């Protein structure tokens, strides 16, 4: 928190100074000792890209309502459907870009 509330609301300058130390840095934690730091960072960055694509698909391309799954099998199936739809969209994008270049 950057604010403290006692009798008045005040800015916690020590908390801001501490947070400033980490600006532009990532702190990752993993329980897999077999992977390197670089692989953990690449995996995390890849996950962010996939999540951004999912948000884009949900917002613009695929009109679906939120789904809430608790069974592992259903969660895995849901993710596979999204990955497949992302793959199909990307293939269509690449092929249509290739055709545009051939026509030019």
Structure description:
With 104 residues, the protein is mainly alpha-helical. The chain has one domain. 62% of the residues lie in helices and 6% in strands. The chain has 3 helices and 2 strands; from the N terminus they run E-E-H-H-H. It has a two-stranded antiparallel ribbon with strand order 1-2. The model has no long low-confidence stretch (mean pLDDT 78).
- The chain-level mean pLDDT equals 78
Q: Helix/strand/pairing class, anyone?
A: mainly alpha
Please give the share of residues in helix. 55-70%
**Helix-strand sequence:** EEHHH
Report the biggest beta sheet as strand number plus sense, adding barrel if it closes. 2 strands, antiparallel
Please count the helical segments.
3
User: N- to C-terminal separation?
Assistant: 56 Å
Total number of strands: 2
Question: What gyration radius follows from the Cα positions, in whole Å?
Answer: 21 Å
Oligomer: single chain
Low-pLDDT parts are none
Give the spatial strand order of the biggest sheet.
1-2
Estimate the strand proportion: 5-15%
Give the CA-based shape: elongated
Q: How many structurally independent domains?
A: 1
């Amino acid at each position: 928190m950057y604010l403290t509330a006692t009798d008045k609301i005040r800015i916690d300058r020590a908390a801001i100074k501490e947070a400033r130390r980490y600006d532009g840095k990532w702190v990752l934690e993993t329980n897999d000792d077999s992977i390197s730091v670089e692989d953990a960072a690449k995996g995390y960055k890849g996950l962010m890209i996939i999540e951004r694509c999912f948000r884009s698909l949900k917002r613009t391309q695929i009109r679906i309502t939120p789904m809430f799954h608790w069974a592992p099998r259903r969660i895995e199936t849901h993710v596979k459907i999204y990955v497949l739809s992302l793959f199909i969209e990307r293939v269509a994008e690449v092929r249509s870009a290739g055709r545009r270049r051939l026509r030019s």
